[in-house]
Amino acid sequence: MVKSESQLKKMVSKYKYRDLTVRETVNVITLYKDFKPVLDSYVFNDGSSRELMNLTGTISVGYRGHTYNISICLWLLDTYPYNPPICFVKPTSSMTIKIGKHVDANGKIYLPNLHEWEHPSQTFGAYSGHNCGVWR
To answer: Which stretches make up the UEV domain (predicted)?
Structure first.
């Protein structure tokens, strides 16, 4: 588990906006205690891959009077926060992905705020709080 900003800076040492990425990551893991930063290989649609940081954890989503904990993974590009995170629903073995307007068969999340992402007005904290209801 990453415990300090210096550890985060090492994880994103090749990122163009390292300090902004670290600041936003600290904000996310402070707001969402379950989220953990991980450095891993992300494979793009064209088959190329890149070592990127992701934040994986659960968010609570209310639906029809019940609260569900949904596991998600947010991949931060090396140009973050000037480019949006690539977001996925990560179902447990007992869950299935409900394909719809905002989630594809691979669990990739499509939301207007991701398509219209602009830093500094867009941050993950603002994005998550505003859009959790759309994933229902």
So the answer is: 2-136
